Amino acid sequence: MRILLVEDEPEMAAALQSGLHKHGMLVDVAPDIARATEALQSKVHDLLLLDRQLPDGDGVSLVAKARANQADLPIIVLTARGSLPDRIDGLDQGADDYLVKPFALEELLARIRAISRRPAKVVLPTVNAGRLRYDFAAREALVDDMPLRLPRRQLLLLEALAYRLGRTVQREVLLDAVYGFDDAIQSNAFDAHVSKLRRALTEAEAGVEIHAIRGIGYILREAPNGRP
Question: Is 152 part of a structural domain of the chain?
Answer without folding.
Answer: yes
